[in-house]
Amino acid sequence: MTPFEYIRAGSCDEALAAAGAPGSAFIAGGTNLLDLMKHEVMTPARLVDISRLDLAGIAPTDAGTGAGTGAGTGAGLRIGALVPNSELAADPLVRRRWPLLSRALLAGASGQLRNKATTGGNLLQRTRCYYFYDTAMPCNKRQPGSGCAAREGFNRIHAILGASDACIATHPSDMAVALRALSAEVELLAPGGGRRQVPLAGFYRLPGETPQIETVLEPGEMIAAVLLPPPEGDRQIYRKVRDRASYAFALVSVAACLRMEAGRIAAAALAFGGLAPMPWRSAKVEAALIGEAPSPALFDHAADLLLAEARGQGHNDFKIPLARRTLAAVLAEACSEEMPA
Amino acid sequence: MTRHLKLDGPDTSRRLDGMAQGVLGRGEPRPEGALKVTGRALYTGDRQPAGAAHGALVRATITRGRVTALNAAPVLAMPGVLAVIDDPRLVRHSGPGGQPNPPEADARSVVYHGQPVALVVAETPEQARHAARALRPDYAPEDAVTDPEDPRAPVDLPEKKQASTGDLDSAIETADVVIDRSYRTASMSAAAMEPHATLAEWEGDRLTLHGTLQMLAVARAQLAAALQIGEDRIRILAPHVGGGFGSKLGITPETVAAAIAARQIGRPVYVVCARPEALEMVSRRSETLQRIRLAADESGRLTGIGHESLVSNLPGQSFSEPVQQATHFTYEAAHRRIVHRVARVHRMMAGPVRAPGEAVGATVFECAMDELADRLGLCPVALRLRNIPKAEPVSGRPYSSNMLAACLTEGARRFGWDERHAAPRARREGEWWIGMGMASAVRVNLVMEAKARVTLHPEATALVETDMTDIGTGSYAVLTQIAAELLGLPMQAVATVLGDTELPKSSGSGGSFGAASTGTAVYLACMELRSRLAEAMGCPEPDLTLKDGHAIHANTRRPIGELMGRALMQAEGHVTPGDATGKVRQATWGAHFAEVAVNAATGETRLRRMQGTFAAGRILNAQTARSQLLGGMIWGIGMALTEELVHDARDGHVVNRDLAEYHLPVNADVPALEVHLLEETDDWATPMQAKGIGELGICGAGAAILNAIHNACGVRVRSFPATLDKVLAGLEQAEAEAAG
Ligand SMILES: Cc1cc2nc3c(=O)[nH]c(=O)nc-3n(C[C@H](O)[C@H](O)[C@H](O)COP(=O)(O)OP(=O)(O)OC[C@H]3O[C@@H](n4cnc5c(N)ncnc54)[C@H](O)[C@@H]3O)c2cc1C
Question: Which among B250, B287, B381, B423 is least buried, having the fewest CB atoms inside 10 angstroms?
């Protein structure tokens, strides 16, 4: 670990002011950042501790706008950036209306970690690529221009979609996959006092030539909240496929939020984890499903669309059939009669 | 006075049956348990004495070659840095398990990626680690072969490990049924919970070292040789060790480095390894490639057994995973061939890890037996029962005891094996295929030389002293129980002091031999004390009853203090292995049964239940014995489903160097496990009839799971671990075949 300055922020303004200096990083739960600092994968010169800020509330909002904390119609939800993962998963409203989110959270990490991990920190956790973690190895994400050790290395957990020659790492978050399917937006505070709202769809960036830049966050910008619109579907599933029964990152995960009408798929939002550098969502896949009656052939067609551009790296070739089969299993379950709506 | 016993033959006196205290065998709690759960048991890393400096190893970023320049100057100028240690005595890898010779010195010569080449010492651990990372030596790299299956890898065939009887080739030609399959098992890590750590402190020319070590006398001999000083100048302390599983059998690189650094800077020096160091530097279980050939007649009688293996280690290392250790004596067959090859590759050293040999060898063999049963259309349990030898094949030695049939039969009954469908894909629940599998468990039984001292105090308390370690296994409990039972004292009246090289030299912990070997030394010391008490009581020892601090004979009952004339009594026990091992085949036995669910969509396997039935001599502590067997079975789950130390094909380095990516089974992977212990009296084992138990549970366990996967979904995975991608490939292949 390298020495760093530690500042405990008493207010958002203080935090934003302190984080303006180059080399600063926010620390929330610390469950990811501290590991990375111990390995010297990240070496911030200044830590701005935001864990005591007043951003730990969960409140209903007006549909769509996210405005008016607490006073809205209750159609949407505003989740403070510091809400712990375990609290969010257990929230009665979330469990009732966005069970997908609750399940995705509970599929991640462990009880202890979820108690500490925050909503904002979870969105910004870094990849689990082995070579990113090993400072003896080249990694364009850790050290731009040094090369990618994973492409020719052991890449069983790596991306089959959205990767670039510079980086094939995946985004590890389960929560973000659920939020992507739920069309969440992220509220950001800028150092100068600005506030903006970015859909999760536009929040993450593909690696391209600059895998070190993972989101559209500007330097010093802070996540204040995550905003959920009303769910588009009442049939919600989070399916995580992994190497052990618990406490492992997703090889493939599928978040599904569907609505059925008269035996046909009326609404479908599907997001995928473990496949790409960001939670993956395909408009084509959803369009192909909507208005159709469920059938194995339809699910296969959806998988064709999802995986048209998929490219295995060698050790992770299995993710292509695995994604296809998992998607089919999830859709079959979501469309089934037994699925409690 | 010392009572010595060389184990040349059976001891049929079964003296323990005649004892009266009634503590031995019971599931007594560990005497040190409360200390451990309240954080007061100080492990090496907990001691943190004032004034200690902290070391961090600098590790090679090439696979093979030499350090041509260390480039220490910029690092020496970094905050807090006290020294960069580049002593020619620094060692490259861990010491060999159980042998006094030291690991190879000259750390500037690199033989695997991640090898320590120097030690940075600083005021804080953070400064030391940062500086060690910042140090960038110059290297002259050389070409290195890291894959044991690379045709360029030099291969040894150690003479003692090859064996051939009869004519396997013609047995195969004339057999009704032949199985010829190759299997792979992965490199694995001992992954002990406590990281390797050393605290070294010199007083003049005497070194006191706290370490994480399983065998203290061996460690002291290795360390003395490495430091080039006399053993009498070294004291090693390891009162609590947080798991070892073989990875702490010898000294590790940080042991030597800390000792040299402490001497050089004149302060105590701590080197606590980080998790990646345990996973990529200390030692590993070798990967194996095993070809099994089985020839059988149509009734399922084996006529031929071929077991060929390829394992690996660094050049010059004498240890090679003894894959076929149990193949020699588990099943009958007239024609047999064993071929053992060792590829010399530049991967981290391979060493003994829990049940070296059988853990992977018996497990793979049991998979092949399942394939044979399948081909014969025979019940897998029946196939095993049909092939249990009357005496050890080839040598003709009798078994001291062979409980395999009893374990198989009893295990099958308790598990409900008769509910298994013989054909795969016969049971389905939703998305899941359900199946059952089984395997035999077998493990050689070892006894090592051991000494212990027991002091009896007139106020009816006793002190047991030996340099034995407790690596989480329950040594404190078991040795205390043995003394309490033989001396007729309650548990609380006996104190056991372990983990100090100043004490009589024990077997140490390893190879499952700890409790039986050192326990026998305690037994002998106590028997000597009993003889003296009997003399004072005026009766032969076998007629003496000791209970609750009193001696009882005929109608007399006297406090033992009175008998002792108020003076303390001391005796040493000393056991050495003798001819018994040559006269009979000794082993421990068991059978595993598993039920799994395999997801038809994703290939995920979830173990639903598992049961092990074992016979391992006299059980000294029902609770710690059960824990050992459970632990072994859980290791079997890991071997079967999740654990693999992945080596990068380019440089051999370990890719998954933390416990997030080296997948040990977690609670959710471990369903209700059942352990049954069958009574076994093996008079050849030790005068206590106790045998090794710490490793038996892993032997064969993984095979029961892989065999169950086949029974569930029809997929044979012949490469451990059976991760979902491998099962999925089999499912897809079967679907493609079915679709024509
Ligand atoms: C062993 C292990 C297993 C795990 N398994 C899983 C799993 O299966 N699935 C899964 O999804 N996750 C898993 N996790 C990851 C876990 O979910 C994350 O570590 C956690 O969510 C991060 O939250 P945090 O608050 O601790 O973030 P921190 O570590 O505090 O921060 C993470 C990053 O976010 C930044 N940051 C934090 N808050 C803000 C904010 N409000 N605004 C701007 N920047 C911010 C920090 O600067 C830092 O870069 C695992 C973690 C571990 C250690």
Answer: B423
User: What fold is seen in the domain B2-30+447-582?
Assistant: Aldehyde Oxidoreductase; domain 4 (3.30.365)
Closest ligand 1 atom number to CA of residue A122: 21
| Residue whose CA is at the smallest distance from ligand 1 atom 6 | A109
Closest CA to B434 of B673, B642, B607, B637: B607
Coil vs helix vs strand at B451: strand
Tell me how far apart the alpha carbons of residues B469 and B279 are, in angstroms, rounded to a whole number: 23
For B44-62+64-143+190-281, CATH gives 3.30.365.10
Q: What gap in Å lies between CA B694 and CA B257, rounded to an integer?
A: 31
pLDDT exceeds cutoff 60 at A341: no
Annotation marks residue B358 as catalytic:
no
Query: pLDDT digits over B540-566, tens only?
Result: 999 999 999 999 999 999 999 999 998
Task: Tell me the H-state helices in chain A.
Answer: 12-18, 33-38, 85-90, 92-97, 99-106, 111-116, 119-123, 130-133, 175-181, 283-289, 296-307, 319-335
Q: How many CB atoms lie within 10 A of CB A92?
A: 9
**Which DSSP state fits B667?**
G
**Which chain A residues are Cβ-neighbours of B723 within 8 angstroms?**
243
Rounded to a whole number, what is the distance in Å from the CA of B119 to chain A's nearest CA?
17
Does the structure show a pLDDT above 90 at A69?
Answer: no
Please compute the mean of the pLDDT values over residues B18-44 and round it to a whole number.
96
Domain residue spans in chain B? 2-30+447-582, 44-62+64-143+190-281, 288-445+586-739
For domain B288-445+586-739, the question of CATH label 3.30.365.10 is answered with yes
Q: What percent of chain A has pLDDT over 70?
A: 96
Residue B310, SS3 per DSSP: strand
In three-state secondary structure terms, B415 is helix
Contact A25, A47 (CB under 8 A): yes
Token pair in block for residue A253: 């995960």
Chain B neighbors of A247, CB-CB under 8 A:
666, 668
Q: Which residues neighbour A280 within 8 Å (Cβ) at sequence distance 6 or greater?
A: A161, A162, A180, A271, A272, A273
